[in-house]
User: Fold this.
Amino acid sequence: MELLAPAGGWEAFLAAMENGADAVYVGGKNYSARQSAQNFSLDELKAAVDYAHCRDKKIYVTVNTLVDNSEFEAALDYIYQIQNNGVDAIIVQDLGLMQAVNRLMPEVRLHASTQMTIHNADGVAFAAENGAQRVVLAREVSLEDIKSIHRDVPEVELEYFVHGALCYSYSGQCLFSSMVGGRSGNRGRCAQPCRLAYSLLKESSQNRAALKNTGKYLLSPADLCLLPYLHMLQEAGITSLKIEGRMKRPEYVATVARTYREVLDQLQQDDAYQPSEEMTGNLLKIFNRNFSSGYLFSPTRDFLSTTRPNNRGVNIGRVVDQNRNDMARIKLTDKVAKGDGLEIWVSKGRGPAFTVREMRVNGQMVEKAGSGDIIEVALDSKVNPGDRVFKTYDARLFGLAMESIRPRSRHHIMVDARVYMEIDKPVKLVFGDADGNSITVYTASNAQLAAKHPLTLDVLRGKLERMGNTPFELGNLELYSEGDLIIPFSDLNEARRQAAEGLVNLRLKANLPPVIDFNHYQAGKKEYLRTSGTATGNKPLISVMTSNAEQAYAAFYGGADRVYLGLEGLMTRKRTSRAELDQLAAYARKHKNQLVPVLPRIQTPGQDTAFKLITNNELPVMAGNPGSLRRCLQAGLEVFGDYTLNVFNRFALRFLLEQGVKGVCLSPELNFTQLQQFGPLGQAELLIHGELILMLSQYCMLSGVMGQEGKCPAFCQQDRYYIRDEQGYKFPVATDADCRFYVFNSRTLCMMDKLDKIAELKPASIRIEARRLNPAAVKETCSWYRRALDELWDGLEPDLLKYKEKLLPPGEPFTRCHYYRGVL
Assistant:
């Protein structure tokens, strides 16, 4: 398996290269899902490619954000440039960009980003059929699901995260940072709201807190560590093991890469090898929020890190006491050395965090201390007996990591050399490596008879082994000389330099990906970027998203043209039955309306209940992930695409329509200006009202923080819950029939008073999200939008502000999402 490490900057890149990574993924200055990282300029990227390729390693570049219409051509040009700079693969999220690259630059190797939320075999096949050679699976895919996916699509490479931070929501399905702070995770600027503090509230208890003493970081996952399970991943069919961390320090990258490399190397000798406690301990010391196995197996209570959202270090002892001079005594359970960083967790307030400059044991100044020792250190704040002490910075470990980052510290390429000397002829120097590359150079001057000190094998080795900043190390050396000859050392040094440089060029040439012809690319791009699509001129349909049959009927009664019926059992945890679906379908046909069942956003291998429900009933269907989309199209169903496909530009829209999709709900992160750049929206749908889902998680926080290990008390069926942030905003939460967890926006989207502006865009339909509304509210909301839209279309001037007040009383907070502000 490939070991794939992150690099947010040059030092982290060297850390990965020099500590055993087979490949490194980096971001450029734009279009990267970690825009806050240092990232790489084009020149730096070219240098990184050369550095890696000379060492038979690979560079993947993340272009894994959504791209809007105005950026699209520049993004294509950027990919053209970096491909011709020699990168080995591009990691993409945007469906339009994936299709464009596949068509215009088929030489580019594409990896489908985890931001595409691919979690089943159909999703993998969809990506492969549209140009991807590798798929980065969603972090939520279990070991058994990996096996199933690999069995179904064995020809596609599978990449899987094995270490680092986890997102609470499925990647690519999170709008929390975007809607709350305007910083979109889909655009590489996530503000990490999952790492903030929240209170859990019960609706029936007058919003009193439902939790005590369980920690306040309710959406903050522990870090992933799959070090003990690498052999299982190999057997399951994983191609590449991915370490998360483009925002992490070089020391982190070095330590994690080195540890995983060591385990992988040991597994080559012993497939039952298990990592030592020291290895795991080093990973804990470098950074951790506690470790969990994530979703590889069924996630357990250790999945969340509710007491601390950042690095907690490792526990190394407890406070014994503190005297009047603020000198604290700490009894150790682990090693501490001068230069280490410690933090003391106090029961109230913020505990002291400090670097050990001086410490005493038994009154004597010491450089280090071990388990059982009682050290005395000076503090600038009060602590109490029994307070826990954590090491957050290990000076020795960080020192070793930094030492490893120096180029040529490890993994040299062995070069054999042969030297041929004949009197009055240039010296011939031949360098060769184990890959069969060979280079021959000659000295500028001729060999001469030596008066005193002929060139010996030992002297020759001393000159040739000075490889400088090259990746080479001298191996075997052979000297063929006709007598006692000498050559100026300066000539010999120059020949060595030329030979090393020539060998580097040979190695780079051997690892160079295909180059794209500029004229061919430009001609194809001009044709591809040509605007297409036509406006229908018809009045937009009013569509309504519902979660159960009662809401669906209410939407029809309120005047909806199309009703989407979610099949995941959201809110009620009760799936719609075949009888209910058939009755609704009959009602819709009778009244010349349209009923569209909506497949669950997540459908893991084997979860076929919803799909079986929609077959053989001649209803159109809505799909929200690439796998469901492909499966429906192959079944010959009429398909609509949900906004969860993250359609952010007209090329992604066009791509889906070319696939056979009948209509697509555009991303709610688009603003008016960006929507106008689409051109005609004849087959596009816009969200205009309701509470949007901000997060979809495989992990039920309610059970995780309130339940018992191995048991689900079904809290979600006993009450309605909210989480409240420290600014007082309340976000409703709910679960579905598969126990997936949803977080809704704290504010209702309402565009009623801007409906005329929405209508000017001429979308095919406008959509109301009504999953959390009771049937009466569903009917009322639909009826007011029905009235307003009909009056607008008839050329009247409806009082849209008055209609808005019918839906939202004056003073009640609401949101326009991104129609005006857009996202960063």
About this structure: The chain has a mean pLDDT of 93. The chain is about 30% helix and 25% strand.
